[in-house]
Amino acid sequence: MNRPDPFWTSAPVQAAVRAGDFGRAVRLARERQGRTQAELAAAAGYSRSTVSRVETGAHATLDLGRLRAVADVLDMPEDVFGALFGLEIRSTVTVVSQEAAVPGGDDPMRRRTLLTAGLTVGGLVVPAGLLSRLDETLLLMPDLDGPASPRLVAARLAAARARWDQGAVPELLVELPDLLALAHRTADERGGPEDLAAAAGAYDLAAETLDKVGAAAPSQLAADRAVGFAERSGDAVAAAWAARARCVVLRHQGRTPLAQRIMLRAAAQVERTGLRTGAERGAYAQMLATCAYTAAQDGKGDDAVALLDEAAQAARGLPAVALAGRRTPISAAQVRLYLVGVQWALGDAGAALAAARPLRASMFSTPERRARMHTDTARALVLGGRHEAAVTHLLAAHRHAPAEVNGRSAIRREATRLVRDHRGVAGARELAGVLGDVRSV
């Protein structure tokens, strides 16, 4: 049996791992082998400038295959490669690209087995091993059994977005690894703008899903992949959505000024298209709304309200229901829901509740958005001290999409505090039952 190379557990390498500095680890390994950047590049099949970008940390837009190829030339162990990105690699995976073998496809017994072997992530019970499988897919390019297929990518991406709209997070986690592997491989092999944009869309959906369940490190990596593919595609809409995925990650890291700059740049990039299509207008309106919420979290209330006014104007005339395979559209009701979140972030309970008052679940086209309306209203009610009404809205949210209460860590924490501190209000016991592990209620 081959013994592990002690170099990879040495102090300098471990310091790079703790810092998440992939480029430093590459440089240390290259220098240890006595290679120049040009020699490493030739062995990996890339240019010296690519290796230079890796070592200086400017590799966010490089596809994962290039990073893995460089690591393989240096005999970097898989667990070290994963740890450098804040993830854990347990085993390699093989993804089958045939439609009949899609996890959770037409095999109800397999889906039932996957969905009942659970673990808890951010309070949401999800299938055991699904997050590790996603980690592996993000870091190790799985083998595909069958040819790359744009048609299959489009079908799976549409199905995955439908899962998102339904709030079906466990099922979505089942399907994301195969989608990512297929979309990534198709983009690499074909390289057309539509293939690259589809891969960006798959990765930004993964980033949002992982962020929702509180898996911060893989969410950031997925957002970086989305940005890389979107930039290569030259598609302004794809680039905007990928930037939004990165913005959400940064916002949850408390880096709101940087997130705000990224979103404003994305909005400007979409605006330069002339906003001739519904997809461009919708993306532009969504970028402005996301900018508004980010500004509010940075304490810039006037900017946030002004941005929402612009978003409302941009959303006028857009269809209220998404076309097949498209993202959930932004509408006047959705912009108003952002206003609820903006006022909540600014700490103004009265303004938040005034914004929420006209909203009804029927104004939103998907269960996920209907649940989001209730959870955002519940947060405003908690801020205003109306605890019983907040419980009612959280229970309503759970009826529309359970993952919006159980899966979103911020909402789950709010709900847990609510039932612990106000156990006597109507509905508290039912909400405690929904949450599942709230004690002494």
From TrEMBL:
Domain of life of the source: Bacteria
Pfam families (alphabetical): HTH_31 (PF13560)
SMART domains recorded: HTH_XRE
Domain HTH cro/C1-type: 26-81
InterPro entries: Cro/C1-type_HTH (IPR001387), Lambda_DNA-bd_dom_sf (IPR010982)
Name listed for the protein in its UniProt record: Helix-turn-helix domain-containing protein
Organism phylogeny: Bacteria, Bacillati, Actinomycetota, Actinomycetes, Streptosporangiales
